[in-house]
Automatic annotation (TrEMBL):
It is found in: Cytoplasm. GO terms for biological process: protein urmylation; tRNA thio-modification; tRNA wobble uridine modification. One of its GO terms (cellular component) is cytosol. The modification 1-thioglycine is found at G97. Signal peptide: none annotated. It holds the Pfam family Urm1. Pathway: tRNA modification; 5-methoxycarbonylmethyl-2-thiouridine-tRNA biosynthesis. The lineage of its organism: Eukaryota, Metazoa, Ecdysozoa, Arthropoda, Crustacea. Keywords: Cytoplasm, Isopeptide bond, tRNA processing, Ubl conjugation pathway. C-terminal thiocarboxylation occurs in 2 steps, it is first acyl-adenylated (-COAMP) via the hesA/moeB/thiF part of the MOCS3/UBA4 homolog, then thiocarboxylated (-COSH) via the rhodanese domain of the MOCS3/UBA4 homolog. There is a cross-link at G97 (Glycyl lysine isopeptide (Gly-Lys) (interchain with K-? in acceptor proteins)). This is Ubiquitin-related modifier 1 homolog.
Length: 97
């Protein structure tokens, strides 16, 4: 199953500055939820300081998550089951100063 990830608004700094990633996720009859995807991102994309992206099992407050341009809160958040060609966008709204 192909899924596209995007990191914007500073979130891309957590994944070596790469803003777009196309993943080919093997489902092996196990559904991919956003919760499972976040664990995969932590283990495979984030090089250091995962606490800047995750808090517990979810994204930190201040990171907006859109799935196919829809706020993930409307889709079930961590329980949303990914489908072929989903686009998952992470936008950091936190800015230092």
């Amino acid at each position: 199953m192909k899924v596209r990830l995007e990191f914007r608004g500073g979130a891309e700094l957590l994944v070596n500055g790469v803003t777009q990633h196309t993943l080919d996720l093997d489902d092996n009859n196990n559904k991919w939820t956003v919760a499972r995807l976040l664990t995969w991102i932590r283990d495979n994309l984030i090089q250091e300081r995962p606490e800047l992206f995750l808090q517990g099992e979810s994204v930190r407050p201040g990171i907006l998550v859109l799935i196919n341009d829809t706020d993930w809160e409307l889709l079930g958040e961590l329980d949303y089951q990914l489908v072929e060609n989903d686009n998952v966008l992470f936008i950091s709204t936190l800015h230092g100063g």
